[in-house]
Each structure stands twice: as C-alpha cells, then as structure tokens.
Fold these 2 entries.
Entry 1:
Amino acid sequence: MMQPGLYHILFISAALFFIGVYGFLTRRNLITMLMSIELILNSVNLNFIAFNKYLWPGKLDGLFFTLFIIAIAAAEAAVAIAIIINLYRSHQSIDVENAEDLKY
Amino acid sequence: MPNATIIALIPLLPLAGFLLLGLFGRKIFKNSSGLIGTALLLTSTVLALYTAYEYFFVYGKVDGVYQQFIPMKLTWLEFSPGVSIDMGMAVDSISVMMLVVVTFVSLMVHIYSLGYMKGEERFSTYYAFLGLFTFSMLGLVLSSNIFQIYIFWELVGVSSFLLIGFYYDKPSAVAASKKAFIVTRFADLGFLVGILILSNSSGTLDFNTMIATLTSPDSDAVKTAATSSFLGASALTWGAALVFIGGAGKSAMFPLHIWLPDAMEGPTPISALIHAATMVVAGVYLVARLFPIYAITVPAVLEIIGWVGAISAIIAAIIACTQTDIKRVLAYSTMSQIGYMMFALGVSKYGGESGLGYTASMFHLFTHAMFKALLFLGAGAVIHYVHSNEMKDMGGLRKYMPITHLTFLIACLAIAGIPPFAGFFSKEEILLAAYQNNTAIYWVALITSGLTAFYMFRLYFSIFWNKSHHTHGESHGEGSFVMMLPLVLLGIGAAAAGFIPFGEFVSSDGNPLESHFHLQFSIAPVALGLAGILAALWLYAKQNDKPAKLAASLGSLYKAAYHKFYIDDIYLFITKRILFNLVGRPAAWFDRNVVDGLINLTGNTTQAVSEGIKKMQSGKVQQYAIYFLSGVIILAALFIYIWR
C-alpha cells in the first residue's frame, strides 16, 4: 500500500482551508461561520503535523504548536459562543446580516 | 561710592506697591490701598533725595567733575561677547536729577489722588497702575543699557495706556488710550531700528561703551558706519535720527504729537504725572543720554532736533490760544514747553560754555515738572469743583478756591517766565543758548514765550476772573487737605526752584557751568511775557465780546488753529483713505481669498475623499474578511513573484 506523501497531506490541508474560507464568506449563520473558522484552524494544524513529520522528524515543535492551537481554539470557541449568545439576546437572531450596527 | 541697595530700592518699592495692590488690592487692601501706595512712594522719595544729596555733595564729584557710577549691573541676555542686555543702574547727574523729579511729582500725585479719586470703584487698581508707572519711569531714568531703556520705555507706554483708558466704560477714553498707544508704538519702531543700527555700528548695547566708541572719530566703527550710506545719509545719521523719532513720539513732538491732547481723557492727576511732568520728557531724557553722539558725531541730526523742537513749541502755543477745554490747553502748553527742551538740546554743543543748551534743557525739564504738575493738579481741583472741563462753565472762582487760585497764579507766572519764578531762569538760559547758536530758533522761541504768557493767562483769567460764578446747588468746598497740600508744596517748588544753581550740578560733560545772568538780555522775553499777560487781561479779565470779535477778525487763521491745524484730519485721511484703501483692503482680500482659500481647499479635499471611502466601513463582517483575504492574497503574490 502506498504511503501518503507530504504533497497529499498539503493538498488536503489546502482544500480544508479553502472550504473553511468559503464557508466563512458565504454562510450567514454565525454558528456555521464559527465552524468554518475551526476548519481553517484544523487545516493549519494538519500543515504543522505534516511539516514536522516529513521535514524535521527528530523534533517536536510542530506537535507542540498544534496542541497550543487546539487549546486556543477551544478557548476561542467559548468566547465566540458567548458573544453569539449575547448577540442573540439583543438582536433575537444569530444572522450576521442583522449585526451591522458598527458602521460609519 | 553710591549705595546700590538704596538706589535699587527707589524703583523697587513702587513695583512692590504695584504687585501688592494689583494682586490683593481689591479684597484685602480695599480701603488702605491709597495709603499703602503713598507710604511706599514716600520712602522712595526720601531715598531719592538722600541719593541726590550724597551724589551732588559727597561722592559725585571727582577732581571737580561729576562722574558716572554704575553701582550695579546684571547681565540679563548675552547675544555675543560684548553685546548683551544688562539690567544696570547708571548714577550720574541727570539720572539723579530725574530720580528726584519723578519720585517727588509722583508722591504729590499719590497724595493728591487720595482726595481726587476718593470713592472711585477701582481705587486700588488706580494706585497699582500708579506704582507700575513710577517703577517703569524710575527704571527708565536709571538704565545703563540702551535695550534696558527700551524695555522700560515700553513699560511706561503700557502704564500710560492703562491710565489713559482708566475710565474704560467711556468710549472717548478708550479711543484716546488706543491712539496714544498706537502712535507711540509707531514711533518706538523707529527707536528699535535705531537701536539696532547704533549697536551694530558700535558693537555694544551699553550706553557708555557705545558713546565712547561712536564719539571717537578715528575708530573703525565710526569710519565704517559713516561711509556706508542709505538714501544719501550715513548709517550713523540714520540710527541717531531713528532713535530721535522714538523720543519724539514719546515726547509728543510735531508731527507725532496728536496723541497727547487726547490723552487728557485720563484722570487729571494722571495727566499731571505722566503727560506733563515725567513720561513725556522721556524723549528729552533719551536725547540727553545720547547727547555726546548727537553733538559730536551727527550734528546734522541735532540740527533737525532743534528745528523739530522749535516748530512743536510754536505750533502748540498757537493751538493752545484757541482751545476751550482747560486740560487741552495745558496739554498743548506741555507740548510747547517740551519743544523748548528739545530745541535747547538742539542748539547745544558738547562741553564747556557752548554746552549751555544742555544744562538749560535739563533745568527747564526740572522747573517745568514743578509748575506743570501744579497747573494740572490745580486744573484738577477746578474740574473737581465745577464738574466740567470747559472754560465757559468756569469764571470768578477766585473767591471760592483761594489756595488753588494762588498756586495756579504762581504756576502761570512761572511758565510765563516772569521773574523771580522758576520758569524765568530756565527759559532765560534756553533763550540765551538759542541766541548764541541759532538766531532763527531764537526768534521762534521769543515769539513762543509771548504766546505762552498769553494763553496761560487767558486760562487763568477765564477760570478765576471773568464772569461771576453761579454755584449750582450746594458747594462742596475747595477740596480736602490732601488735595491742597501737593498744590502748596509744588507752588513752593515752582516759585523757588529757579534759584538752584543748576549749571553747577548738571552739564553736558560733568564740569560745573557758570550760569551768567544777563540783565539786558532778559528784557525782551520778560517784556513779551508781560505784553502777553496784559493782552489776556484786556481780553479775558471781564466778560465781553472782544475775544469773539478778535477771533472773527482773524478768520481762517483762528479757525485753522482751533482745528489744531487739521493735523488730526491729515492723519485720518492718510490712515483711512490711503492706508486702508491701498494697503488694508488688498491685504484683506488676499487674506480672505488666497490664504483662507488654500486652507479651505485642504479641508474640502480631505472631506470629499473621506466621503468617498467611508462606505468601506459597512459593518458587514464578511466584507471585511474579503478585504483581508484580498490583502493577504496580494501580499502573498508579491512575496512569491516579486520580492522573493
């Protein structure tokens, strides 16, 4: 069976990243946008792991960064969901099109 | 040697009074401010008299010549080695003489104002301003540095401005104070340029060094300055003439005199102090300070000074004959007498017998301070009594105001040059000096002295004789003791000051000057003076229609003099028509359209641009994300393809 190479993983990571960007730009629901951000973050994680494994197999830097990102993503999700809940309380909606008060 | 502390205290005590009353006068010293100011000034006067005694009789004379002492000198601003603004004190015969005059007259005015200004709402402010003025004037006379004198020069200008405009709710007083300030400021511009030229040619701002450099004809400085010419006159001539313009502005010399008559809007004691006895002679004092330069290096300018003085003297005397406001008559008379002092300097030479004019000028300054302050204070008492400045509201007051009447008569006799009163001696010396050096000026001065006697006695008879006085309602008497005391003291001064052998103490080079008394020479001026008095007696002693007839027969001459020879109108024409239309309006147009236009253009452009791009901040999160992403993509493309 063929071992997956670096390029395969990078391809998947890039695909994941652009799916996330697409979702972030097109979805109106804030929860879905949050999920898109998670996808972007995970594509970055994937890159770190892949580079660590294929280019510097003796080191652990990539792994540690990945762990940090997962921890920070969890915190960020908690903050984001708190914001969404507050937004829902004030606007009765979690549609991003209704949260346009901060403008010129 | 002079005691620096005592001399420094003379100007500093009035300054302390100014600070004390200016800061706390309205609340803490509301009732005692007049007494505080007077007490401080009394101390100053005593110190000044003590200094004068010490200088003239104890240490001043070395080998028979009066020396100049600099007991204290602080370098304040140093521009380059040798060129610095110092705060120094120059003690010599004229500065000590001026110390006595200024403190004495100021003390008289302080005492007098206790009665005259009683009940004024801004009583303590008034005394604060008086202190400021006295400090500035004393600093001016003590200056040892030409820039120091300029600083104090402006300070007396400011205090004069403040005091002319003391009744600031009266539009005419406000206009008068502005006029005085602008005219003298205009002249001071000449003074400043003159200072720069003189200090540039001599390389110093210090009076003594400057005089020493500029009066030695062999020095390089004089040679360079005398050869570099501008519009046909050498740089030195220009410098000295410009400094004189400053002096002429302050001393109300023709044609810069227009502010002085209007300055009579101030309280009358102020007119006595500032616009008669002290500040207006600052110009004479300045010329006397720099006298060696004028006399030795630039005699041409001295000649101009002589003629400006003589013309001012006669023009003012003619105008004074026609005015009806008694303070204005006195103002023109002041201008005329300062003209005397100026041309006395103008006809003088440096040193020895031919320096008589210098001594005479300083002597006249001294005696004039006495009798003119007395005249103003007496006029103040009259105004206080009848509540009017106009002659027609007065008449027959001699029975109601005996002390004022007597002292006023003494002052009139003194200014008319009748022996043995003070003015006789000083005027005699001036006429003698003019006779010896410039006969044309002598004749002008002689005619002026006859006119002086005429207009002074016109004033005297109109106030105290003429028609009988009708008291309107109850009369409040002649005035309190504090108002009469200065009149009596100044009256004694005006009667006796002439007997001081002035030439012994003050002369152009410090050597004592024998004053010769020529009996046959004084016949002409005294006879003219008496003729003037008799003419005034004939016209004004009783109410009649002779003055009106005389005025009618003189026709246009009378009219021109009554309208002050239209000099004010000429000024108005030049400023309003010519300057406003040709300079002011184009400048205003340029400012409004070009300067403001550029500023507005910047503002409008910024506004238009921000109006265009403000839509970018839409509040849509996803739009921002697109901007962000596009930026990242552009940067990535740049890094990959261009800046790798």
Entry 2:
Amino acid sequence: MHESALVRFKSEIRHFYVITIANIVFAALVMAFGISVLVGEAVSMYETFSTALYVLYSPVVLFVALVAALTGFSWLLTSIRVFEGIETIKDDLDGMGSEVPDEDLTRLIVSMLSHYRDNRATIRTMILVCTLGGVCSFLLGVAGSLEHLSVSADGVVFTLNNYLVIPFMLLTLGIALVSLTSSSYFSRFARVWDGRLDEIEESEALLKETLEMDRR
Amino acid sequence: MSGRRTAFEIYWEILVFCRTPQSFTGIINRCDLNSKTGQEYLRFLVEKEYLVEVAEGDKTRYLSTERAGEYTALFGSLYRKLFDAPPRFKL
C-alpha cells in the first residue's frame, strides 16, 4: 500500500509543481505582452493627438492589453505564493530518495494538506485568473493581428495585418492555450484535494474516538 | 511544519516528535505552536496518558507512551490511504 501511495503522491506533487512553474512563466509573458502592447498603443495615441499623422489607436486593444498586464501581474503573485509551498514539499520528497519511511510520507501528506488548506482560496482565484489570462491572450492575439473581419451567413472572412504579425499571434494563442490548460488542471487538482479534505474530515470521528475526545 | 493544520494533525506531530524525550520549547518550535496553544495540546495529551512528563535534572521533558502508538499508526494509515486510489483524471 505504501509503495503505491508514495508513487502517486510523488507523481501528483511533480505535476502540480510543473503546472505552477508553467503558470509563473506564462504569467510573466502575459504581463510582458500586455505592457508591450500598452506602450505601443500609448505611442499611437500620442501620435494621433499630437501630430498631423493619421494614426489611429485601438481602444479595444488598449483595454485588453491593460487587463492582460494587470491579470498577468496578479497571476504571477498568486503563482509564486503557491509555488513556494509546493517547492518545499517537492525538495523534501526528492531529498528522501526512493526509500521513504511511512512516517515521513505521512508528514509530507500532512504538509501538502495544510498547504492546500492555506491556499485553497488562492488556488480558486488562480483558476479564474488563468482562465481570464487565457481569454485575454487569445483576444490580444486575434485583435492585434486582424485587419479585417466579417462574419456573414456565407462564412467568416478575415485578413491579417501582415505576415510579421503571425508569430506574435501564434505566441499569444500559445499562451492562451497553456493558461487555459493549466486552469483546467488546477481545477481538477482542486477537486481531488477538496475530496481528500472531505475524506479526512470523515475519518476525524475515528481519530476522535481513539483519542477519547468526547469532552472536546 | 506550519500552515493550517487540524488538532489531530498537531497531536500526531507532537506524539511522533516525543518518541524521544523533548522539552516544551523544542516541541513548540518543531510543531510551530505558540506557548499558549502548545500548553493546551500538551496538557490534553498528558491527561489522556499519551504523553508522560519525565524529569531530567531541573528540566521537564515529554515522552510518548505506548498508547500513543495506536493513535499515530491509525493516523498514518488514514492519511496514506488518501493516495490508495489515483486521481480521477490523467496526469
């Protein structure tokens, strides 16, 4: 029983660790892209109002970029908070090698449960932020590269600004895909860990009985 | 160990740590407790005879009794059982 519990625990911790790292990287990218588009739009705004040049800025792109930059920033902060705890647990687990005594495994499980209890609300926010970040990146990728879009009964017709925009669009769409995937994984992990907390609550009656805690 | 833990998790930590005689300060440091809550937990465990106070010179140390083994074994098996089944999604 211990072997399989150890293997599953290790596997879950590693996956959770990887998803958290992916979140940090992509949160930083979302923030950087948001800021870079904001700066570009600010220059366009300045040129539109201060020079005779006919340069139009897009309020939609500006708004989406602002939301992406702020979302990226808050996403980064929450990811780091969750990452720190999971990193400690993973380091402890790796430090023990392949032979982990039952008691040490129990201690790590308790650490993970308490880390999850501490960050339950944060992880729920993270799921929302990841989804929002993914949607923002997607919109940013589409809005930044489309020159013309028409939707009719005959179909969807669009033209791209130029071919140089395609790598940018693909990158932002990639960020969108990863953030939506990690949001989905986070919500699955959260469901599993919520289930475990419920299971522990149910077994507390047995522990209470063993400790003869009737008076408490 | 820190973070939000249940009372049962704290009892388990204290009992496992006190398999060798430990001082009050050592226990509250190891289990990340303040002295007030630390005293409450220790008083409870001593009352229930899961811990005994051992005098070492002018110092008092706490030691887990044989009864504690039943609780720590049950606790460990319940927590490890959480990982008996794989998560209901592919990792």
